[in-house]
Amino acid sequence: MRIKKSAYFISESIENNFLNINKIGPSFFDDIVENPKYFKDNKDISFELKYITLDDFFNYLKPDAREAKYIIRENVEYIKKQMLAGVKYNTPFIEIYRDSNRVEHEGRHRMIAATELGQLKIPVYIFNRP
Fold first, then answer.
1. Fold of 19-129
2. Rounded to whole angstroms, what are the CA distances from 34 to 47, 79, 108, 109?
3. Digit-coded pLDDT (tens) for 15-24
């Protein structure tokens, strides 16, 4: 998928203009971020917050995740309008299951919207779990 260039170029830095890095969305993940020692010691779940590009995000996922059939343009356009109006969206995340090499994610449309608005590096939580 080719990302459109936007007239709204924001920043090449790791400045975060569109996402709330204190909120992931699903309460389970918010709990992990709020109680990292408990989850590491008792559940063997760890995480890190990385600022990555859209390409880096898709590199974690299955090769077909980038295909146009999985991208709903109307959603991307709506999110872009909301972001420009000042709405801060929850931070995207990638969940890596070490035991099965399975990868789950949330936020591909937010990633695309922020990239099209000029944000080159976007905060993403990377969770590692058994």
1. 3.90.1530
2. 11, 27, 24, 25
3. 677 888 888 9
